[in-house]
Amino acid sequence: MMKVLDLFAGAGGFSLGFQLAGYEIVGAIELDEWAAKTFQFNHPNAKVLIGDITSFSDELVLAAFEKPDIILGGPPCQGFSICNKNAGDPADPRNSLFTEMIRFGRLFSPQCIIMENVPNLLNAKTKNGDMVIHIIVSELEAIGYHVRCRVLEATSFGVPQIRKRLFVIASRCELKQPFPLPTHGLEQQNTLLKTPTLWEAISDLPIVEAREGAEEMEYTLPPQNDFQRFLRKGSKKVYNHKAMKHSKRMVERFSAMEWGQSVADVPAHLMPYKRNGNGEISEKAFDQNNRRMFPDAPCHTIPASFYANFVHPYRNRNFTAREGARIQTFPDWYIFKGKPTVVSQKLLEKEGRTDEKHLCQYNQIGNAVPPLLSKAIAENLKGQMFHMFVHRDNLIKKNK
Predict the structure, then answer these.
(1) CB burial class (10 A; 0-12, 13-18, 19+) of residue 41?
(2) Which backbone phi and psi does 30 adopt, to 5 degrees?
(3) How far is CA 38 from the centre of its chain?
(4) CA nearest 49: which of 164, 100, 39, 355?
(5) Domains and CATH numbers, the chain
(6) Which of 146, 214, 261, 398 sits at 20 to 30 Å (Cα–Cα) from 204?
(7) How far apart are CA 64 and CA 334, in angstroms?
């Protein structure tokens, strides 16, 4: 069984896809304590290191993990910046946590290194005008890898969500087909299956209104399609299905929205109040906040803050964490640890509440690679990885 090590692991969506494809997850590194707890709970046989990846020495890393065949990672992409402001161009990946992918590649020499990031990375340039992606490719090539890049659309692999992500696949041997071919489309045609809609993804979950739900509850409806049957397999209960504690006024605001409308479309008296405005109605309405989703289409991209981005197609509330997990294609048995939500990071820091300064359930879900997208990548590599092992073994014999 091929072994996988996940860097910048988050809650484990990237790893889960490989696990579903038959790989063994041997380890992970994650900075955030709550996300790491989620990973460890759902991957109990993996060795999980919690902390800043740059603080773990080569010796510690080599002692902690079995040699992996594949290293996964989604290094933070906020302008490729790092804490040291004097480190040079923050857009240069050589000044970013991407260098940890290179370090681990040198330490373990895996057959593949797979990096996930935002599609805009393809357009990013350094201060000198160099393309960031060219630097990343050249750094991986310098340690002995063939490198290919492509943006994949999640709906093409059965994910009920419009979500594009960039994948960089570096392999010891050149791959004939590094990226999977689409298996799904928005309409069923030729050999493509139909991508589930938002409602097909969540319609069997227990009905909960604002302020209702629980971290653990019973199913109340049977599965209604193959997608739901797949995600319910192995789970006897529903977890993390707790609705936001909306005020009566916010529920009323949501009730005024039709599909596709947002807070910018509600009657004036239901618009948000100004912050510290003594009850005055705000003149600004953010069009991206609290948009009611269409039930018969894939959902918009689930971001880290999706508890405030989307309104349920039929209920007057935002999505629960479990609904977001369904849209991301996490199975129902995958349980998210930590609090469902936390107040803003700035406020937590200001008030000294560092014990709560972690990634909440919604953050963990929104940050994840959709497991079914990851699974498609893993399955596509599987047969080709076998040939890579044969090639490697033949080289070893030849050199003897």
Answers:
(1) middle
(2) -145, 135
(3) 13
(4) 39
(5) 3-187+370-399 (3.40.50.150), 198-367 (3.90.120.10)
(6) 261
(7) 25
Cα 129 to Cα 39: distance, rounded to the nearest angstrom: 38
**Annotated catalytic residue, options 77, 112, 299, 360:** 77
pLDDT tens digit sequence for 155-175: 999 999 999 999 999 999 999
Taking the C-alpha atoms of 123, 125, 130 and 131 in order, what is their torsion angle to the nearest 10 degrees? -30
Spell out the residues 6+ positions from residue 132 whose beta carbon is closer than 8 angstroms to its own: 80, 91, 92, 93, 121, 124, 125, 126
Task: Tell me the two tokens of residue 6.
Answer: 């996940």
Question: How does pLDDT run across 7-42, given as a tens digit for each residue?
Answer: 999 999 999 999 999 999 999 999 999 999 999 999
Q: How far is CA 57 from the centre of its chain?
A: 27
Alpha helices by DSSP H, 21-72: 33-42, 58-64
Strand residue runs (E) in the chain: 3-7, 24-30, 47-50, 70-73, 112-117, 146-153, 164-171, 184-185, 193-194, 213-217, 238-242, 291-292, 310-311
**CA separation for the pair 229, 219 (Å, rounded):** 12
Determine the pLDDT at residue 41. 98
Mean pLDDT of 237-243: 97
CB 164 within 8 A of CB 153: yes
User: Which amino acid, one-letter code, is at 383?
Assistant: G
- pLDDT bucket at 272, cuts 50 / 70 / 90: confident
**Which residues, 6 or more positions from 185, have their beta carbon under 8 angstroms from its beta carbon?**
155, 156, 192, 193, 194, 195
| 299 classed as catalytic | no
